[in-house]
Amino acid sequence: MKVVLLAGGFGSRISEESVYKPKPMIEIGGMPILWHIMKEYAYFGHNEFIICAGYKQEYIKEWFANYFLHNSDVSFDFRNGKNEMTVHHSKLEPWKVTVVDTGYNTMTGGRVKRIQEYVDNEPFMLTYGDGVCDVDINKLVEFHKGHGKIATLTAVKMKQEKGVLSIGGDNAVKSFREKNKTDGAPINAGYMVFQPEIFDYLGGDDCVLERDPMDNLVADGQLMSYIHEGFWQCMDNIREKNMLEKLLESNSAPWKRWDRAVPHIVAPY
């Protein structure tokens, strides 16, 4: 199952770094948070990614273009007047990554609509490119397949400013509304699974996934929630970035299931 990653926003609330790069490319533990999210999915065997890029999309493309070189031991031989490169050892994941320029000002639903041709009329997963989680992806997919609806989102209960859900006893989503600072209700944490019929609910570039499409899915009884009681954290600001850094440095990051040394990073803020 392909994984679609929303990575096109401006990241204005973490402008200290997003002025230079897209928010999902801001590093924690020496690697972009987008890479951490991809490692989460890859841990469960999902290795094909479609990245919905927008703001500074060239940064994402160049990063992946250089990923092979930066993660390999290589020799450069100039002795014959040529630039001959020999790869000795490579520490690459078996990933296929498609980076799509989905527009500079396109909203979330419009970005998803623009990658429809890359999904190939199959079920797919989708999440935001700025939040990490220790959700069991296999159980999430199993839950989605079991209920037979068009859409599943992962719900966590946190006092955060995210889209707020009203969930019934059967885990069906009864309503979906915009954030409220006083809410402690379940929120949309991303980590969604969609049937290809989701594209019938999406409009043009001004379509916001979390508004009319979600409302219409609710009205049609087609939106379900997978309740996650473990760890989830987005990276909206420098404070949250530094918190994630500390979890990685102390080797207590719940989302990190793979082996990789985390360099000591002194936060500049």
Search tags:
269 residues; two-stranded antiparallel ribbon; 9 helices; 16 strands
User: What is the average per-residue confidence, as pLDDT, rounded to a whole number?
Assistant: 89
What global shape is seen? Answer: globular
Oligomeric state of shown chains? single chain
Strand content: 25-35%
User: Can you write the helix and strand succession as a string?
Assistant: EHEEHEHHEEEHHEEHEEEEEHEEH
Low-pLDDT runs = none
Helix content: 25-40%
So how many helices?
Answer: 9
Structural Rg: 19 Å
Question: Major β-sheet, in short?
Answer: 8 strands, mixed
Distance between the termini: 39 Å
Structural class: alpha/beta
Number of strands: 16
Summarize the structure.
This protein has nine helices and 16 strands. It is of the alpha/beta class and 269 residues long. The strands form five sheets. Strands 1, 4, 7, 8, 10, 13, 14 and 15 form an eight-stranded mixed sheet that branches. Strands 2-3 form a two-stranded antiparallel ribbon.
Structure, explained:
The chain has 269 residues and is of the alpha/beta class. 26% of the residues lie in helices and 27% in strands. It is built from nine helices and 16 strands. It has helices at residues 15-18, 33-43, 57-65, 67-70, 108-114, 116-119, 137-147, 212-219, 238-249, and strands at residues 2-7, 27-28, 31-32, 48-53, 72-77, 84-90, 96-101, 124-128, 131-133, 151-157, 164-167, 173-177, 186-188, 192-194, 223-227, 232-234. Strands 1, 4, 7, 8, 10, 13, 14 and 15 form an eight-stranded mixed sheet that branches. β11 (164-167) and β12 form a beta hairpin. It starts with a strand and ends in a 20-residue tail after the last helix. The mean pLDDT is 89.
